[in-house]
Amino acid sequence: MPRSVNAVASRARRKKILNRTKGYWGRGKNVWTVAKNKWEKGQTYAYRDRKNKKREFRALWINRINAGCRMNGISYSVFMGELHKNNIELNRKVLADLAMNHPEAFTAVVKMVKK
What we know:
The protein is mostly helical.
C-alpha cells in the first residue's frame, strides 16, 4: 500500500501562505520557501512594531505637552508633578490633544496647576 501524504492539506497550507504574500517583491510572492520565510519575517516585524508604535506615540505626546508647557512658562516635569499632586486625572494623550488643538483649554489646565 502506498504511503499517504495528504497532499490536499499540504497544498492548502502552501496556498494560504502564497495568498498572504501577494504583492511581495520578486520570488517572495510565488516561490514557497522564499514566501514562507518572508511572511514569517514580516510577522515578527509586525509584532515588534505594534509595541514600538505605542512607544513612539508616547514620545510624541510628551513633546507636544512640553511645547505647550513652555509656552505657558512651566517645564514638562514640573507640570506633570503638579498634575499628580492636584489629583488631576488627564492622561498624556488628552493633554497632547489639548496642547495642539485647544491651546486655551490647555492654558486653563496649566493655570489650575500653577495655583
